[in-house]
From TrEMBL:
PANTHER family for the chain: HTH-TYPE TRANSCRIPTIONAL REGULATOR CYNR, TRANSCRIPTIONAL DUAL REGULATOR HCAR-RELATED
Molecular function terms, GO-annotated: DNA binding; DNA-binding transcription factor activity
Designated name of the protein: LysR family transcriptional regulator
Keyword match Amino-acid biosynthesis: no
Pfam families from the UniProt entry: HTH_1, LysR_substrate
UniProtKB keywords: DNA-binding, Transcription, Transcription regulation
The organism of origin for this protein: Microbacterium protaetiae
Length: 296
């Protein structure tokens, strides 16, 4: 089995056709078919179901594809790994989710650079769910997750209060804080999916339990959150202050001082997560990050 055979297989799977893959790889169709057959013989499994319209990976083929994503990603990192090794530096790959306060994380970066100058930080933006397999497959050293993943080692790094971002002209904009009763009569935009679903579920349950009549609009947040909020004609957006500062310029964020139905404050937590065991240098990274996080 050769690496090029695996690459040929991945291209055919991506394009769904041996003919299209052969054209993309500048090969003849019979030559590509023969080499994929050789790969199937080497691994002992049929990798494609062949039909008149093209090819579809089998269960074994899909399993190999998932594994190859890890293999190819590691191969792409080889030049970086070799360069850092020559410079006597240690790569530290960290996943960052949405809603991360930049000033808070800069404090952690400064602490790492001061305490562990050999650390070469590489940051990768990804949701909590996307980070979990990357951690398990060794493509990230650490993840910052918005829940405590049971399959990983974790330590609490950050808690952020939740609140409502409202337009500057809103009657709520001058309030120092809000209660659950203030949700009554509002149309509130919240995440359709992603980073703080658990917290949003808690606040919706708490608002309902308080008797407030609230209309919820679910959208995906990002670069165009303000346009989405305006066109959705909402009164407020449920989010953290850090997200409001970045995504809703000119809006006013007001914290919600309330408890959920279990009497727990409405905050969103961020956990540092990793797959054990860690090499000694990365154990020091955990110590520095937890020490600089401000959570005790």
């Amino acid at each position: 089995m050769e690496l090029r055979h695996l690459s040929y297989f991945a291209t055919a799977a991506e394009l769904g056709s041996i003919n299209r893959a052969a054209a993309a790889l500048h090969m003849t169709q019979p030559s590509l078919s023969r080499q994929i057959k050789e790969l199937e013989h080497d691994v002992g499994h049929a990798l494609f179901e062949r039909t008149s319209s093209g090819v579809t990976p089998t269960a074994a083929g899909n399993g190999l594809l998932r594994h190859l994503k890890v293999v190819f990603a590691q191969l792409e990192r080889m030049p970086e790994v070799l360069r850092l090794a020559e410079e006597a530096r240690e790569p530290v790959r960290i996943g960052l989710p949405q809603g991360m306060p930049h000033d808070w994380f800069r404090t952690i970066i400064d602490a790492l650079r001061q305490t562990l100058p050999a650390a070469s930080l590489s940051l990768h933006e990804a949701t909590t769910e996307d980070q979990r397999p990357l951690l398990q497959n060794g493509l990230l050293d650490f993840g910052l997750l918005h829940f405590d993943a049971p399959e990983l080692e974790t330590v609490l790094l950050l808690e952020q209060q939740l609140g409502l971002a409202v337009p500057a002209h809103s009657p709520l904009a001058d309030r120092a804080s809000l209660e659950l009763a203030d949700f009554d009569g509002l149309t509130v935009m919240a995440h359709a999916f992603g980073e703080v679903n658990a917290e949003e579920t808690r606040v919706r349950a708490a608002v309902a339990a308080s008797g407030a009549d609230t209309t919820w609009v679910f959208r995906r947040f990002g670069e165009h959150s303000e346009l989405i909020a305006v066109t959705s004609e909402v009164d407020a957006v449920f989010m953290t202050e850090a997200s409001a500062d970045r995504q809703l310029a000119g809006w006013v964020w007001v914290p919600v001082d309330a408890l959920d139905t279990n009497g727990v404050p409405l905050v969103t937590s961020t956990w540092l997560a990793w797959t054990p065991p860690l090499r000694p240098f990365l154990e020091r990274v955990v110590e520095v990050m937890t020490g600089a996080s401000g959570v005790h």
